[in-house]
Specification:
Chain lengths: ~450, ~230
């Protein structure tokens, strides 16, 4: 199995605290190294400076003066932590109380010596040859460096341990809290899977990211719920609305089967049955069109469309038919009202509104189609002087298959206005039904 | 007339083949993409009826390959979906016309007839006057005369007459006129075309004995050359 980084809350928190502990070790190492080096350099510097001044004494005033200088420093406890030895050419120590064998000339990092108080010890030392085969040894005790080194190590070891401990506690605590919250969301999801669609994720009173997640999830569930309700409603409506033409078709065909008719009689029965299938197909076409528009995929093909031209085209198409039924179609458009959209859908929207007005108003009604260019919007208005729609019913007629009681007798499947609403939504347009006093006014407002 | 039908649904293919053969056409039927491509590139057809969804190579891909191969045979695309995007994609891929299933056979035959003659019509750009019997349409000035006397028509009535005259002797269906005159890709429940045709007919026939526009029952309208 391919190894992978932990992904659980506990694993991630543990990993983070482990990384912090490693960082602590690294930091400790760097501090230890840098301070150790600095102390060593400081020690070397002191030894070199002292050697230099003693050497100057020997060269100017002779070896006797040097021996006296050493003795003065030692007697006066003015050694500043340094030890001195002066050896004659024969290897005999002639001055200094520092207790070690004569080393070879040069730097010594760890020169063993005997300390009067602490016994065997090591020192940092510089051995310098002088005139006449004499050797000067200046040494410094390393004990302070070692002590500081030890303190640094101890401090960082304690910090490392504390980091690990705190990390483990935090990881466990965080994991516990997250797991408990996720557990609640999980339980809600399981309950919904098991069929309780009304369940929602618990909310906290305090705002936090879990609460925000819960809120978003709940909104998503609400949306899915309303879509499901809608789907259920539509399924019922489709079944109901298809039953009528299907039942009619069945009845026509059965009657024709059971009756002796001549060729024309049969042809007439077939024609009526075909009309019924046409009606069923129309319902399907309208349903498919609405669901296609509602996916908003149509937006991908949006281009600039001259809404004035569309309105003019629709008015022209319906004017003759309207006059035949005693309606009047009036057109009032501002030129060049261009919006981003689908010209076929916009034409269908406009046509549906006009047809709706034609079908639901009596002879003598005037239907006005207007396109208005406003500062920040373009409005398509279709208003009639017919009976209008009561305020309480206005929102309902935009839903699928809703037909008002008084239109039951007229042909139609109650999808025309829902397609209009769907096309408007796809075009980011607001649809508003109002009282044209008298009549119905539909305003579709495309925000620029 | 040689027609290639590429349709994988056996029933639809048989229905189309039977109808077109009865109309005196020579029909070849294939049921998958590769066969469609082979026949379309190896033989000369007057028109191809191509289903959008074909096994192995889909109809749109066949269409693109045919067009890429420089074959300009008119193609009528059939589809089971009425999606707006499909229609656009079909026409952009090089289809000459588009028909959504289910369709009436009369609709298919009318569209096919118009397609087959189309190249000949569009090959005469210099043409400025359309003449069919005693009807004359000046394409530039949009003026119409019958037997020499001018007839006052609305712009879209002229457009409708132009479509009928350009396709004389062929049937223009209701949906074809809706598409071409008003650019409607949907079927209004109002009898728009019937009303406009009867108005146009009344204007054209005033003072004449013969009907300028003939109604073909259950199919559409036509203007006969004789």
């Amino acid at each position: 199995m391919k190894p992978h980084l932990p992904r659980s809350t506990f694993g991630l928190a543990a990993l983070a605290s482990f990384a912090l502990a490693i960082a602590t070790i690294l930091l400790g190492g760097i501090v230890y190294f840098v301070s150790h080096e600095a102390l060593e350099q400081q020690l070397d510097h002191r030894i070199a400076a002292e050697t230099g001044s003693l050497k100057a004494v020997a060269e100017q005033d002779g070896l006797g003066a040097l021996a006296m200088a050493i003795a003065r420093r030692e007697d006066g406890h003015n050694t500043n932590g340094l030890g001195y030895m002066l050896f004659a050419g024969s290897g005999t120590k002639v001055a200094g109380r520092f207790d070690a064998a004569l080393p070879r000339p040069g730097w010594h990092e760890l020169l063993p010596f005997h300390d009067a108080r602490e016994g065997a010890n090591v020192a940092q030392a510089l051995v310098t040859p002088l005139q006449g085969g004499y050797m000067l040894v200046v040494a410094a005790d390393r004990t302070p460096i070692d002590e500081i080194d030890r303190s640094i190590l101890m401090i960082f070891s304690a910090a490392f341990g504390a980091m690990l401990l705190i990390g483990i506690v935090c990881a466990w605590g965080l994991g516990f809290v997250v797991r408990r919250r996720l557990g609640r969301i999980h339980a809600t999801a399981e309950a919904i899977i098991d069929g309780d669609l009304s369940r929602r994720v618990d909310r906290d009173d305090v705002p936090n990211e879990f609460d925000r997640l819960a809120e978003t999830l709940n909104r998503m569930l609400d949306r899915i719920g309303s879509l499901l309700d809608n789907l259920q409603q539509v399924t019922t409506d489709v079944a109901h609305d298809l039953r009528t033409p299907l039942a009619r078709q069945k009845q026509i065909l059965e009657t024709a089967l059971e009756t002796d008719l001549d060729a024309d009689g049969y042809r007439e029965a077939i024609r009526r049955a075909a009309d019924s299938s046409e009606e069923i197909l129309n319902i399907f076409t309208a349903m498919l069109r609405i669901s296609e528009v509602e996916t908003y995929q149509v937006r991908e093909a949006f281009r600039p469309v001259d809404l004035s031209e569309v309105a003019e085209r629709v008015a022209d198409a319906f004017r003759a038919s309207a006059e035949a039924t005693g309606h009047e179609v009036a057109l009032d458009v501002d030129a060049g009202a261009t919006i981003a959209g689908d010209r076929h859908l916009l034409a269908q929207m406009c046509a549906n509104l006009v047809e709706n007005a034609l079908r639901h108003t009596p002879s003598g009604t005037r239907i006005a189609i207007c396109v208005q260019r406003q500062a920040d919007a373009v409005c398509l208005v279709v208003a009639d002087t017919g009976p209008g729609i009561p305020p309480a019913e206005r929102a309902r007629v935009l839903q699928r298959f809703v037909r008002l009681e008084r239109s039951r007798s007229t042909p139609g499947h109650g999808l025309g206005l829902s397609l209009v609403a769907a096309i408007a939504r796809a075009h980011f347009a607001a649809i508003e039904l109002s009282d044209a006093a008298p009549g119905l006014r539909v305003v579709i407002r495309f925000d620029g | 007339m040689k027609i290639l039908i590429a349709e994988d649904d056996r029933e639809t293919a048989d229905y189309l083949a039977k109808g077109l053969t009865e109309s005196g056409m020579n029909v070849t039927v294939v049921a998958n993409g590769p066969d469609a491509l082979f026949h379309a590139t190896q033989q000369q057809f007057d028109a191809i009826i191509l289903d959008r969804m074909l096994p192995a190579i889909d109809g749109l891909a066949v269409l693109r390959m045919i067009r890429a191969g420089g074959i300009a045979t008119p193609v009528l695309l059939l589809t089971a979906m009425a999606k707006i995007a499909d229609r656009v994609e079909g026409l952009e891929s090089g289809a000459d016309d588009y028909l959504v299933k289910p369709f009436a056979f009369s609709e298919l035959r009318a569209r096919l007839n118009v397609l087959i003659r189309r190249p000949a019509t569009s090959a005469m750009p210099a043409e400025t006057v359309l003449r069919v019997r005693d009807l004359e349409l000046d394409l530039r000035r949009r003026r119409v005369t019958r037997g020499g006397s001018p007839i006052d028509l609305q712009p879209r009535e002229v457009l409708m007459l132009e479509e009928l005259m350009r396709n004389s002797d062929r049937v223009m269906t209701k949906t074809m006129l809706l598409e071409r005159v008003w650019e409607f890709d949907f079927d209004p429940r109002t009898n728009i075309v019937e009303t406009h045709i009867s108005r146009l007919r009344a204007k054209l026939n005033a003072g004449f004995d013969t009907d300028a526009i003939l109604t073909v029952r259950g199919a559409g309208y036509t203007i006969r050359t004789e």
